[in-house]
Automatic annotation (TrEMBL):
It comes from Pedobacter cryotolerans. Pfam families: Asparaginase_2. Residues 1-26 form the signal peptide. InterPro entries: Ntn_hydrolases_N, Peptidase_T2, TAT_signal. GO terms for molecular function: hydrolase activity, acting on carbon-nitrogen (but not peptide) bonds, in linear amides. The record marks D202, T203 as: Cleavage. Substrate binds at R231, I232, G233, D234, T254, G255, V256, G257. The active site is at T203 (nucleophile). Keywords: Signal. The keyword Electron transport does not apply. This is Glycosylasparaginase.
Length: 343
C-alpha cells in the first residue's frame, strides 16, 4: 500500500543523496580540471630541451598538444648541427638523406612519411597525410610528390658536414650500420652531447599533454646513418616509434628501430600503462622484452622508451646508460633527466 510518509522520507533521502552525488561529481570535475590544467611536454635526448621550449610556447597559451609537438620537433629538424634528425641528418649509404616521421593526436588520428627526401620538416608532411588524405602512411617518391603538391619547398638536406662524414664512411663502407652507444660517446667531464657526427642514430620523440587534458605525440628522425637505401626504422611506424591513447597516455622510442618494431614497443608501453604500470615500469618491461628475446644483440645496441600518462606522470628506461630526456612543465622549463637503464 502506498505510504505517503515513507515516500516523502525516501524522496528526501534521495534528494539528499543526489545533492551529495552532485557535489562529489562537482568535486571530481574540479579535481580533474585542475589536473587537466597542468600542461607538460617531454622529449627524447638533451636536444629535447630546445624542442620542448618551442612546444611550450603553444602549451602555455592553452594551445593544442598536436600543434605543440609539431612546432617542438621543428627545432631539431631545422638544426643542421643535429645530424640524426631532419636537415643535416646523416645520409644513407648512397649519400641520400631520407627522413622518417609520424604524428598522432588525441582522437587516434595519425599520419606518417617514410624515407622522404628533400623536405626539411617531415613532421609537417606527416600531419598533412593525417589531415588531408584518407591514408596513414606515404613513402618515398609518393611522399615527396604529395609534399610538393601541399606547397612544401624542395631542398638539399645534405649539409657539407654530413657529406664529409659520409665520404669518410665510404672509405670502408661497411654496410652493417654501426650502432652508437651513448655512454661511450658522452664526455664524462662535461656530460653533454659530443658533436653530431659522432652519433650514428637518434630520434626526437615528443609527447605533450595540453591544458584541455589531451595528448599528442610526434617522432622524427633521419634514421640509421649509412643505412641501406629504403630502410625504415621504428620512428614513422605508429605503435612502434610512437603511440598515443588519449585515455591512457603516450609513448615513444629511440635507438635501434628494428628491435622496437619487432616488439611493437610504444604500443606495448601504452598497453602496460593501461594495466596499471607506471610510465617508468612500462618502459622497463618493454626494454626487458627486447633483452629477453635477444640478449646477445641487446648487449651491443641502444633502445630507449619514454612515456607520459594521462595524469602527467612520466618515466623512461633504456638498454644502455646515456639515454636522457627533457621535461618542460609549469615548474621547470629545461629539465634533463638521465633515464635509468639495464646495463
Ligand atoms: N629509432 C631510429 C631508427 O631506427 C634511430 C634512433 O632513434 O636512434 O631509425
Amino acid at each position: 500500500m502506498f505510504n505517503r510518509r515513507k515516500f516523502l522520507k525516501a524522496s528526501a533521502l534521495s534528494t539528499a543523496l543526489l545533492a551529495v552525488n552532485k557535489n562529489s561529481f562537482a568535486n571530481d570535475i574540479q579535481k580533474s580540471t585542475s589536473i587537466k590544467n597542468q600542461p607538460i611536454v617531454i622529449s627524447t635526448w638533451d636536444f629535447g630541451v630546445a624542442a620542448n621550449a618551442d612546444a611550450w610556447k603553444v602549451l602555455s597559451k592553452n594551445g593544442r598538444a598536436l600543434d605543440a609537438v609539431e612546432q617542438g620537433v621543428w627545432v631539431p629538424e631545422a638544426d643542421e648541427t643535429n645530424q640524426t634528425v631532419g636537415y643535416g641528418g646523416l645520409p644513407d649509404r648512397d649519400g641520400r638523406v631520407t627522413l622518417d616521421a609520424c604524428i598522432m593526436d588525441e582522437l587516434g588520428n595519425c599520419g606518417a612519411v617514410l624515407a622522404l627526401e628533400h623536405i626539411k620538416h617531415p613532421i609537417s608532411v606527416a600531419r598533412k597525410v593525417m589531415e588531408k588524405t584518407p591514408h596513414v602512411m606515404l613513402a618515398g617518391d609518393g611522399a615527396l610528390q604529395f609534399a610538393l603538391e601541399q606547397g612544401f619547398k624542395k631542398e638539399n638536406l645534405l649539409t657539407p658536414a654530413s657529406e664529409k662524414a659520409w665520404k669518410e664512411w665510404l672509405k670502408e663502407a661497411k654496410y652493417n650500420p654501426v650502432m652508437n652507444i651513448e655512454n661511450k660517446l658522452y664526455d664524462k667531464a662535461a656530460p653533454q652531447r659530443l658533436p653530431g657526427n659522432q652519433y650514428n642514430h637518434d630520434t626526437i620523440g615528443m609527447i605533450a599533454l595540453d591544458a584541455q587534458g589531451n595528448l599528442s605525440g610526434a617522432c622524427t628522425t633521419s634514421g640509421m646513418a649509412y643505412k641501406l637505401h629504403g630502410r625504415i626504422g621504428d620512428s614513422p611506424i605508429i605503435g612502434a616509434g610512437l603511440y598515443i591513447d588519449n585515455e591512457i597516455g603516450g609513448a615513444t622510442s629511440t635507438g635501434v628501430g628494428e628491435e622496437v618494431v619487432r616488439n611493437v614497443g610504444s604500443f606495448l608501453v601504452v598497453e602496460l600503462m593501461r594495466q596499471g604500470y607506471s610510465p617508468e615500469d612500462a618502459c622497463k618491461e618493454a626494454v626487458m622484452r627486447i633483452i629477453r628475446k635477444k640478449p646477445e644483440t641487446a648487449k651491443n645496441i641502444q633502445v630507449g622508451f619514454l612515456a607520459l600518462n594521462k595524469k602527467g606522470e612520466y618515466g623512461a628506461y633504456a638498454i644502455q646508460k646515456g639515454f636522457s630526456y627533457a621535461v618542460c612543465d609549469t615548474k621547470k622549463q629545461d629539465l634533463v633527466i638521465k633515464g635509468k637503464s639495464y646495463y
